[in-house]
Prior knowledge:
Structural class: alpha+beta
Shape: globular
Largest sheet: 5 strands, antiparallel
Radius of gyration: 31 Å
Helix content: 55-70%
Number of helices: 26
Number of strands: 16
Distance between the termini: 47 Å
Low-confidence stretches: 429-436
Bound molecules: zinc ion
Amino acid sequence: MDFAAQVKGSVDIAAVVGEHVRLRRSGPHRYMGLCPFHQEKTASFTVHVTHQFYKCFSCGAAGDVFKFVMEIEGISFYEALKSLAERHGIPMPKRSQYADEDSKLRGSLYAMHEIAQEHFRANLNSPAGETARAYLLKRGLSRETVEQFGLGFSERSGNHLLRLLEQRGFPAAQIEQSGLAGRREDGSMYDRFRNRLMFPIQDAQGKIIAYGGRALAADDNPKYLNSPETPIYKKSYVLYNLHRAKEPMRKEDRAILVEGYMDAIGVTAAGFGPVVASCGTALTPQQVKLVKQHTPRIVVNFDPDTAGANAAERSINLLLEEGMQVRILELDGELDPDEYCKERGAEAYQQRLEGSKGYFYWLADRARSKYDVRTSEGQVAVLKFLMPAVQRISDQMERMVIAGDLASYIGVDRGMVLDSFKKSVAERKEARFERQEVALRHDERILINALLTRPEVAAEALPELRAMESVATFPSHRILQAIFALDAGGSALSFEAVHARLEPEDQHMLAHAALIEDTDVTAEEIAAAMGSARRTEGEYRRSELKRRVKEFERAGNWQEALRLMTELQSLDRHARGLT
Ligand SMILES: [Zn+2]
């Protein structure tokens, strides 16, 4: 057995999922809960312990325990494997060279960032850090805040950090991989960050994995320079300040999303805990999932300028797509969140926060400022502008209420709004085959479950089922073919092995067959299902014979027709004996 299979065999998928989803038992082998991958009010997320598989019957998310950990934590297969093995006290195999090298490299990268952190902080407090300290003073950051956020400074010239890392014995290739140093075309290396205020970027556990550096000289470009992606830093999976904000997010049941490091620091220092920033990138689905693990409610507080508003607009659709409840916090006086907290004070920010608008009103305001709603062209344009957001509301009641409110808010005809809404919802439904009912016969369902969970039944039934011609007409025929193929290849039958051989539509059918009904199939049920399959086979063969008899008759081949007729009569007699 390979190591992954060993780990999978020793972890309890329900316990692992249960760390992120409140599960309740819904049968001897099954748990259910609210899906962590989309927003829902009634549970359609299923975890099946026998099949070691999870499936959401609404959004279609599905997989094994590794896939779950990869998706929910935004990590690679190898990282998920390692984390599960560690948590369950299963030692990683020594002989796996890849595993060894990978963890060694990651260990070195973390260590180099620790060294860099000490170095940058010492710089800030040295005479060389004077401009940086002056800048921080000007921005109104207290000493405690600078300490709390671990801010530092990279020197104006030289390759101090590079030399330091070399002295500590890190090979050049690893230093390059850390992103802390760059390599020129001639092969020589240099400190990536120079004359910059340094912001350590930490993962959800608080380990430093990268840096953001703000230029201190006016003519230094870019204004913000970030670490490149490295084996420990995948920027679309990282939110600045998450490790500090995650507890407050849970407690307050909301997150505040700002744009930059200084905003996150300033708002946090003003006494607001659940603040995160998507520094250096447009917001990504993975970042939204990181927030959603802690709360479904988010307040977007971007800069008041056009770029900020455009970024907010893009983020809203993404947030809705991920099922978040979105509000928009707008600040007056052209102040960004950091400046606002400093100039107007925490109380004023708090008031703005509590008064933040539902995203629809904010979007409607944007639309009104862009188009003239007194003209019918303007009204159509406004609706077009709002529709992408509307399409993402999954709750019908909510949709109707918003339609009504919105119509009066933008001053367009209510009927027109409702029509567009209905149309957009119809389009949405077409796109989702996952919601469709699956037409599975009862006997198929029983047989699939029996074949996957009871090897002794499978051994007996498979040769007979395989010989049945009518199997090709079963809705589940591709599932059964996959089972036949696995069995013929001498592989053990398992839900997962069968699942892996199927196209998405059949995977969905298999999930319906094996994950939804959660009672053990009894010997009587199996016998009845085999009986039913035999009758289907009998009928199928008779109708096939009848068809061929007709063909021979039409062709004038009476001899063959007669022979088949005799065969048909004997089948009929046999069928009567069966029923
Ligand atoms: Zn789902």
